Every structure is written in structure tokens, then in C-alpha cells.
Prior knowledge:
Strands 1-3-4-2 form a four-stranded mixed β-sheet, with no helix packed on it. Strands 5-6-7-8 form a four-stranded antiparallel β-sheet, with no helix packed on it. The protein has strands spanning 2-6, 17-19, 31-37, 40-46, 54-59, 64-69, 72-76, 84-88, 91-96, 103-107, 110-114, 120-125, 131-137, 140-147, 152-159. The chain is mainly β. Mean pLDDT is 90; it is low at 174-180. Helix content is 0%, strand content 48%. The chain contains no helices and 15 strands. The termini are far apart.
Amino acid sequence: MIATFEAGLPGTGPLPVHLHTGKPTPWSEGFVVRFIAQSGDWIGNLQTGYGYATKVIEWPEADAVILIAKGAVYFVRPDQPNQWKFIDLLGIDCVVAPARDLALISTYTDVVAISPDGSERWRRSVAVDGVEITNVRDGLIHGSAGINPPDEWHSFVLQLATGIDAEQSGEREPPMTWDLETRN
């Protein structure tokens, strides 16, 4: 299984598979990817996101690749062209965990853990202006989070299995809610 970025859509051959971020624009050329798989070759036309990053991360244990196309992140099974999932618009990077059972996507604000079936296992907001995963070991994710203002980078450590802040001993933080009755 191989995925490579191409210069543009081919002028002949079968129609490309259009991968989109939720608002299909199949008439518009995005990032073009050629997939070479056991089931045959095909072309994907990926709608882009709101970032700068572009890369292909092969994940053989999941029979998949993670694609970042100018921020838009997709989970794609090259042997199944119509079985893909859109994950995020602001992707920066992706690393597969040492046990090869999770893909960890860093966005401008979050760390997102993806299971081998392409589903989101957990998501944790850690930054305002960039996330860098520097190391994954002993069940922990180590990284740096961009906080702007004041234009600083702070380290973080998350539990690999849950995304909970490993430096705090409490339970997962409750989701933020908005009380419409009292407006607070």
C-alpha cells in the first residue's frame, strides 16, 4: 500500500474518489493522491483544510494511511477507496504509538487519538497555537503546546490510553457546558 501526492488530477482514466471535510466540492481540484493498493490503483481528490501541513503517514497495522492535506486530516484504507473518514481541519502532524494501536494526530489546538478502525478514541485540547508531540513512551505522550499570547511553549504529558493530563491526579475534566437559563 502506497500513497503519494500528485501534481494534479489526471486528464484520463476513472473519476477520482472525492474526500471532503463535510461540504463536498467534487468539481474543485484539491490535493491529489495516488493510491497503489492490492485491490488496484486509484486517485483521491482531497479537500484541503485550514493549515499548512501536508504529509502521508502509513499505518500498516491498521491497513490504512493518515493523510494531511493543508490541515485536513483523513483516515484512508487504500484497499477500500470509499471507506475513508475525515478527522480534522487543522492537522499538523501524526505519529503512530509504539504499540501501533493508536495514531496520535496533533492539530493547532488538540491531540487526537485514532483507533485502527478510524474512529476517534479521545481528543484533548492542550494549546492555542500549535501542538508538537515530542515522545511517546511508557504509556505517556510528551509534547509542547503553543500558547499565544504570550507566545510561549509549555510542556504537557497525557496518558496514552485516555488523554487525561498525566501531571494531574484527578479524573478527566468535565465538558464545558452553557446554562441558557442563567447565561453562565
